[in-house]
């Protein structure tokens, strides 16, 4: 059997940017620059804030756009006394197909640990939403020679108790913390090495699911470096922050694949 073809995935993570109205304009502007050949070749997603999800859903459905709606966070409980939180079922009803769990900004500023990330990933899956499990080492961890160990532990923790057939469907995003929002992307060989390591680690526990799971890279991607990064064998796409706030720039990154 030849190598498994994994469809690339490019997601714009808008973080805490944009009102609902701006988010509608951005998704529309993005769609003007993409055509069916692009969507055929690459899965495209945008991750607006919670307050913009409903509006983005309206644009996507009214214009029948093949753009995935991605949430930036989810709570693990089905429902309950969790003031300020949002459940997977609430997201699923807004046609959210993917959710980012364990972004380093949430790990760092909101105390999310591997166990919470795992609970979030399982909650998403149980409502039919694909988790995008974000992992990555800090500069200190890399300089101490602990990058592979740290990121490997994050992945194993996030995937705990998830059956292999579900692991095959999910997405892992390798986002080295030192590359996020710094303008300093990982060297393509460094990103490839880590992503290949993660795939092997997933293979040791989940077998062939490792050939299907999409592992994408994030951290200062822009149209100038996207080609070198995406050309690497194990890199299946990108999670794009700052550069995704301009729809033209996000479209240019997506179009690397076509
Ligand atoms: P930047 O592309 O701004 O570095 O952000 C990456 C990121 O955190 C995407 O989730």
Count of DSSP H/I helices:
13
Main beta sheet strand tally, sense and closure: 8 strands, parallel, barrel
Task: Specify the helix fraction band.
Answer: 40-55%
Give the overall shape, derived from the CA principal axes.
globular
Q: Assign the structural class, choosing from mainly alpha, mainly beta, alpha/beta, alpha+beta, or little secondary structure.
A: alpha/beta
Stretches where pLDDT falls below 50 for ≥5 residues? Answer: none
Order of adjacent strands in the largest pleated sheet = 1-2-3-4-5-6-7-8
Give the CA-CA distance, first to last residue: 26 Å
What is the total tally of β strands?
A: 8
Strand content: 15-25%
The SSE order reads EHHEHEHEHHEHHHEHHEHEH
Molecules bound to protein: 1,3-dihydroxyacetonephosphate
Rg from Cα: 17 Å
Mean pLDDT: 97
Description:
- The chain is an alpha/beta fold.
- The chain is 45% helix and 16% strand.
- The chain has 13 helices and eight strands.
- Strands 1-2-3-4-5-6-7-8 form an eight-stranded parallel β-barrel, surrounded by five helices.
- It is globular and about 45 Å long.
- The chain binds 1,3-dihydroxyacetonephosphate.
């Amino acid at each position: 059997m030849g190598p498994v073809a994994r469809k690339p995935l490019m997601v714009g993570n808008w973080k805490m940017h944009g009102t609902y109205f701006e988010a509608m304009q951005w998704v529309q502007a993005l769609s003007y620059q993409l055509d069916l050949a692009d969507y055929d070749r690459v899965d495209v997603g945008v991750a607006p804030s919670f307050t913009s999800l409903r509006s983005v859903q309206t644009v996507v459905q009214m214009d029948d756009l093949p753009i995935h709606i991605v949430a930036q966070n989810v709570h693990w409980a089905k429902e309950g006394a969790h003031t300020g939180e949002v459940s997977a079922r609430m997201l699923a009803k807004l046609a959210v197909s993917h959710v980012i769990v364990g972004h380093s900004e949430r790990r760092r500023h909101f105390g999310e640990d591997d166990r919470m990330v795992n609970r979030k990933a399982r909650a998403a899956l149980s409502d039919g939403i694909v988790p995008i499990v974000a992992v990555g080492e800090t500069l200190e961890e890399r300089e101490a020679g602990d990058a592979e160990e740290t990121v490997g532990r994050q992945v194993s923790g996030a995937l705990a108790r998830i059956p292999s057939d579900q692991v095959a469907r999910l997405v892992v995003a390798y986002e080295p913390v030192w590359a996020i929002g710094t303008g300093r992307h990982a060297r393509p060989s460094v990103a490839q090495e880590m992503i290949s390591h993660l795939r092997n680690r997933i293979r040791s526990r989940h077998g062939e699911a490792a050939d299907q799971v999409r592992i994408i890279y994030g951290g200062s991607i822009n149209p100038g470096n996207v080609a070198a990064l995406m050309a690497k064998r194990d890199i299946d796409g990108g999670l794009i922050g700052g550069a995704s706030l301009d729809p033209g720039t996000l479209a240019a990154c997506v179009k690397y694949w076509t």
